[in-house]
Design goal:
88% helix; mainly alpha; single chain; 0% strand
Length: 120
């Protein structure tokens, strides 16, 4: 099994966990914005900043593994998995990538709504 692919899967799984936490916070922020609970909102924003920092720290690690597999630091997941021979790791990477895309899209929608609520 390709060790770089395993490490990449672990990094993407960590990113997925962080995005899941960000999504939970975003949903909580909606209620806090509606209820105008500004103190709790500030705590939520600080937690969000910590999670974003975790993503910033994971980014170069992810790029390093992608570079080791493909020769480029940034490629589409579909291109990356084509370079791998192990079907189980391919499946796991595709699954994590799909979940990441879904969560990021949902997070974007909720954050857009929260932005509008904050402006009211």
């Amino acid at each position: 099994m390709n060790q770089n692919a395993v490490e990449l899967k672990n990094i993407l799984a960590q990113e997925l966990n962080v995005y899941q936490e960000l999504l939970k916070l975003a949903k909580d922020k909606t209620k806090l914005l509606v209820d105008r609970k500004l103190t709790e909102l500030q705590v939520s924003v600080e937690q969000e900043e910590n999670l974003v920092q975790q993503l910033v720290e994971l980014e170069p690690l992810r790029q390093e593994q992608v570079m080791a597999i493909t020769g480029e630091p940034v490629v589409k997941l579909e291109v990356l998995v084509d370079k791998l021979s192990d079907e189980s790791i391919k499946t796991e990477l595709i699954d994590i990538g799909s979940k990441l895309r879904e969560i990021v899209e949902e997070l974007k929608v909720i954050n857009d709504g929260n932005q509008r609520l904050a402006q009211v």
